[in-house]
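Journal club side-thread
Mid-discussion, someone asked how the predicted structure for our own chain would compare to the paper's figures. Pasting it here so we can look after the session.
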Amino acid sequence: MAHLVQVGLGSGGMSVIDMLVRDIRISKLTLIEPDILKPHNLSRHLLGSDSVGNSKLLSAVKWLKDRNRNLEIISIDAFLQEPEKQAQINNAIKGADLGVCAVDNEEAKYHWCSLMRHHCIPWTLGEVLSGGIGGFIHTFVPGGPCYACACTYLKREGPKESKDSKPDYSHPSGQVEEARIPASFASIQTIAALHALATIDLLDAKIKSYSFLLPLQKVDGIFSESLKKIVVNISKNESCLFCRGEVKVVNDVDDLLQKKLKELSGGLGS
C-alpha cells in the first residue's frame, strides 16, 4: 500500500487527487494547502458552493473520505515554505512513496523539489499553460534531473511570486489573446488526468524522468496543431545549483535563485 504526499488543492490539484484516491493501492495521504475556497474558484473546482469560505483542505478531506473511506489522511494547513511548519512537513513526508506537486507558485515548486530530493521520493508536476491552451507533465525521480534542470532547459526564470500571490491560470498582459483567457474546467481536467496517469506510472514502478507538452488548442505563433504530444528531453544539468552535490532542503530559495540567475546570465550584472 502506498503513501502519497501532495501540495496544492486548487482546481488542478483537487482533480488530480480525486482521480488518484480511487486507486486502492493508495492507502495514506499527506495533503498540504493553506487557502480557503473563494466564489471565483467554483467554475473550475470540484468542490461546490457549500465549501465557499471554508478551508480547501478540510473540504477536500471530507470529499476524499466520501470516495475512499479507508484512507488515512494527514492534513497540514500551511504554506509549503513556512519556516515554523518545516519540522511537521518533513516528519509527515518521511517515508512516503510518491509525491504530487499541484501549485503554480514557482518558489513552492523549487521548495517541493528540494523536499522530494531530500527524502528520495519520486514525484510528478502538472502545469496548465495560460489560457488553457496546453500543459506540461513532468515526472522527477531520485538521481535524475530536478525541477531547476527543467527550468534551465525550458529557459524559464526562477521564482518571483510571493506566498501571497494569487495565480489564476491566465496572463492578462499576454501578447497572444488566448493567453489572456483563464483556463476552462475542461482544459484543467485534461491536464489533471494526464498528471494522474503519470503518477499512477510511479505506482506501477515505471520509474523514470519524463516530461512532455500537450497542446490543447492550435494557436498561431505557439502551437501549429492541437493534441499532438511533444516529448521534452530534459537531461540532468551537472552544474545545477539545486541538485548537484549533497542533497539538502532548500530554505533560502531567494539566495539560490540569485545565484542561479547569475549562473544563467554568465555573471552579467555581478
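Post-session note: The chain has seven helices and eight strands.
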